[in-house]
Design brief:
The protein is built from four helices and 14 strands. The protein is α+β, with helices and mostly antiparallel strands. About 25% of the residues are buried.
Length: about 270
């Protein structure tokens, strides 16, 4: 065996860790690469659709109208009644307290999860859900998220919130597509402002400060997601008509015409106080 002094000499002669040193290093700090300020720009993929195809897709996405929370609440109430056998579901109004393993009614329905429904004087309400219902044919009613309507009679205004996933294929209108929503609407009998949107198997639609009023049919931005991930944006001008400049990932594509006036007018009329 070599003596200790000889082993140490060999380590030093081979240039081991005890001899490593960088002139530009600082004690207690690891050397880092200098930031040159250069950034990598990731270009979006080319658009999948033409301006005409985007226009058609936007119109189709709006064909079911703007989602109304009361429609989902009413549909949920109907399916609660349809399968109720007096024992299952364990419900009181729109509130159910089943476990997540659920219960099976004698009418062939399965109810699982929880919902909490609260209302106040007038038509204001909130429905919180983490629930699903399976009908005898195997179709699923999904009730997951929150539906809320709040009104202010003094100012003749309303505020609507729809979040989560709500729907049932056997319903009509927007509920039949079982959308996932993050949508906020507010206004009164004269105007409606929409922010957020919804996604379905067919389309992802988004409103950015989209406003429709009795004096201006539409303003703001209507957006549709390309299948590859980037966004088309229809920017309504100040002339308030249904046509605007269409762009894809910030690049102009031309003009598209999509009216939201009829859907907004129906909404304003329904929620006017």
């Amino acid at each position: 065996m070599w003596p200790v002094t000889r082993r140490l000499w060999v380590l030093l002669a081979l240039g081991g860790p005890a001899c490593t040193h960088r002139a530009d290093s600082q004690p207690g700090k690891s050397p880092v690469e200098e930031d040159t300020g250069q950034r990598t720009v990731v270009e979006p993929p080319p658009p999948s659709w033409t301006a005409e195809q985007v226009e058609t897709a936007m119109i189709q996405a709006l064909s079911g109208g703007l989602p109304r929370p009361q429609e989902a609440v009413d549909a949920f109430g109907r399916i609660l009644i349809a399968g109720d056998d007096g024992r299952c579901p364990n419900s009181g109004g729109y509130t159910i307290t089943e476990s997540f393993s659920g219960c099976h009614s004698e009418k062939g329905y399965t109810y699982a999860g929880l919902t909490i429904y609260t209302d106040s004087m007038g038509d204001d309400f909130s429905l919180l859900g983490d629930c699903y219902v399976i009908d005898p044919e195997g179709d699923i009613f999904q009730a997951a998220g929150e539906l809320e309507r709040a009104t202010d009679p003094a100012n003749h205004s309303f505020a609507i919130k729809l979040t989560g996933t709500w729907g049932y294929a056997k319903e009509q209108g927007w509920l039949s597509s079982v959308p996932s929503l993050a949508l906020w609407l507010e206004g009164d009998a004269e105007r409606l402002v929409a922010n957020g949107g919804w996604s379905t198997a067919e389309a992802v639609l988004y409103f950015e400060a989209l406003e429709s009023s009795s004096t201006c049919a539409q303003s703001g931005h209507l957006k549709l997601q390309d299948p590859q991930g980037a966004w088309y944006s229809l920017d309504y001008g100040e002339d308030c008509d249904a046509c605007g400049e269409l762009s894809y990932a910030g690049q102009p594509l031309g003009t598209a015409c999509v009216s939201v006036e009829a859907a907004a007018a129906r909404y304003r009329e329904e929620f006017s106080l």
